[in-house]
Amino acid sequence: LAKTTQPISMDSYEGQEVNITCSHNNIATNDYITWYQQFPSQGPRFIIQGYKTKVTNEVASLFIPADRKSSTLSLPRVSLSDTAVYYCLVGGGSNDYKLSFGAGTTVTVRA
Amino acid sequence: SAVISQKPSRDICQRGTSLTIQCQVDSQVTMMFWYRQQPGQSLTLIATANQGSEATYESGFVIDKFPISRPNLTFSTLTVSNMSPEDSSIYLCSVVGLDYRSDTQYFGPGTRLTVL
Questions:
Q1: I want to staple B48 with a disulfide (CB 3.0 to 4.6 A). Which of A8, A36, B17, B56 is the partner?
Q2: HSE-up of B16 (CA within 13 Å, CB side)?
């Protein structure tokens, strides 16, 4: 499973855009990049998934450069309720669908 | 959308006892997994719950301590055996094959276990 590296924490203010970059130098050809959000005492919630270029949904955007060795999750106009831990995961490309969670990024949104 | 539920949502247990956690999905799924999240830590994969056969355990986890069953495509159980305070964690099940994203894992709400 490819190892990921992301910042331990990030602070932001309401209404700002938050960009979290994740490094995954050993990503395999078949691996997807998936981001989850986790609030205290809850299971991780799927945010977005991509393979290459850009993916956008109603919650976030995911930017993946051509070499796929990193990715950036973009949260537009965050609110206090976006305060959570965000995990970047690489995997799922093989038939076992296993994921390896790193430490995640704690995003704190302030008023 | 499909729902993943876990029972119990939380429990407080005495050391030396065992607790069985249930994971129920309201539609058939391809894969089911069990994770542990120790206080303040990230998630660690315990095992893959295989339907109709023995679970596949990750390094550091053994069947005697964490027996797992998966009798069908919508249900699995994880038992935490002979518990000690070090087993105090949140235990989460996840599934693959829930919707059109055939390769995305979705997680249950978790079971918070405290061992005294």
A1: B56
A2: 0
